[in-house]
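User: For my dataset I need records formatted as: sequence, then structure tokens, nothing else. Please produce one.
Assistant:
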Amino acid sequence: MKKLVLTIAAGFMALGLSAQTNLLNDGGFSKDTIFDVSQGGQNNQWGAWSDNGGAAKVENGVCIVTPVTHNDVWRMQIEQKGLALENGKSYVITFKAWADAARTIQITLEDPNNGYRLIGITDDPNTVMGDDNIHNSKWNVDITTEPATYTLHVMVDRLVSNTLVKFAFLLAQTSDVVYLDDVSFVEDAGGTAVKSAKQNTFSFYPNPAKNILFVNAKAGKQINIYNVAGSLVFSKIAASGLEKIDVSSLPAGVYFIKVDGNTQKLMIK
């Protein structure tokens, strides 16, 4: 299939953004190679991983992935690790994709050093609902046989000191060959990519929680937890961007967590 030429700079202009540094290395897949699918991405380079016989290569500037059908989309991945991201910043992801037959692919932004935890929130409608009742950085994207450019938005909010950022395409849902090109991951300098996410001054996980709850809130903000009767059962001032709270003494049930005038439902199990 002939590659359509579309520069990253032109993509930025279509989005109304100025050209910025792509945080992914070689987003245009300029180096022809056959991936070692047992290795995955290494040292801020593109890589592939499969444990059920998938194959991947870069040819004429296009990443060509031949997956093997599996119910678990994780079984075939194109990935890059080590992106330098910051909590509280919004980013725009664009990529071109098509396939030999119309199908769905999945894209994730996650932390393999901490249980593959999703590390961002988004307004995009094609995301999965996370265990904290908000849309997290895992997208389901429907692609067709025609090359098209897709745009995703994310605000990163869960980086910790040992986070390793991993950006990946997950492709094992069907065996249809997938073509990827012109992948960019840039900071949204205007901070408008994730509007409602920015309106929420905090996030938390897991939900339901059993023993430990992590709350991501700005330092100096009051964190309050109320039971369904409206009684305050926990309160503290956030000292850092990520607070670890012991909720093991709270009875199982429904609670409400409030930070800076915003309230979200919390389940304790």
